[in-house]
Write a structure and sequence with these properties.
The protein has about 90 residues and is an alpha+beta fold. The chain has 2 domains: about 1-30, no CATH class; about 35-75. Helix content is about 55%, strand content about 15%. It has a two-stranded antiparallel ribbon. Strand 1 (about 35-40) and strand 2 form a beta hairpin.
Length: about 90
Amino acid sequence: MFADFTALAAEREAIDRAIVAWTENDLTDEILGTDLNFWHTFRNIDVTLPMGLCISHLFNHQTHHRGQETTLLSQMGGDIGATDTPMMPQ
C-alpha cells in the first residue's frame, strides 16, 4: 500500500488525527447508546453489537497489535525500550 515507511507514517498520523477529531467533535453519548449493525464476513451472518463496545474494541485491539509488534522486534534482537507507563519519560 505504501512505498516506504515515511508514507506509511504520514497516513497513520492522518488517520489518528481523524479519529481524535471524531472522538472530540462527533462522538456523543447518544451515539454510544446505539447499536451497530453489520455483516460479519467471516461468519456469514448479520450482527448487532452495542456501539460503545465496538468503539472500545477499536482502541483496545490496537493494544493487541502493538504487543505483537514488540514481541517480533524483541525476537529479532531489537531493544524496544520501556513500554510501561511508569517507566516512560514524562
